[in-house]
Amino acid sequence: MAYRGRVSLREGRLRVWLVPHNDGPAALPNAAVRIRLSADLADRQELAPGCVRAGVREVMCETGPLPPHGRGRHIGMALQLRDPVAEVVLRVDTWWNGGATDRNLANNEHVVLALDTGDSYAF
User: Fold this and answer.
1) What pLDDT digit, counting tens, does each position of 20-37 carry?
2) Is residue 63 assigned to a domain?
3) Which of 25, 76, 111, 120 has the smallest CB count inside 10 Å?
């Protein structure tokens, strides 16, 4: 599992867009991606379908089916932070993959620093 995406921060609103990739030889019926932040989320959030809040700074989303050497569904959301901050560190990793073996552990976690500029940062 790997993820490709973008993140941007503007005035306490963090926009996250990502696409899960299955680099393996077998299909995965589903997996779960975890998104962790360095700042607290506001109490109320409108999350993407298939996503749940898992803590003060954490959201988890199901990927849906992933074909072999293929992409999953696009996951996009605008997260409201509790307080505006100058920067946020975003960590994206696989929480659950149905027991699949992943031989390339180097692409399992992505860490992105987003500055409060509105600019889009790719991972």
Assistant:
1) 999 888 899 999 999 999
2) yes
3) 25
DSSP secondary structure, the chain, as one string:
-EEEEEEEEETTEEEEEEEEEE-SSS-BS--EEEEEESSPBPS---PPTTEEEEETTEEEEE---B-TTEE---EEEEEEBSS--SEEEEEEEEEE-TT---S-GGGSEEEEEEEBTS-EEE-
Amino acid (one-letter) located at 11: E
Please name every residue paired with 9 in a beta bridge, in sequence order, or none if there are none.
14, 116
How many domains does the chain fold into? 1
Cβ-based neighbour number of residue 3 at 10 Å: 21
CATH code, domain with 8? 2.60.40.690
pLDDT band with cut points at 50, 70 and 90 for residue 102 = low
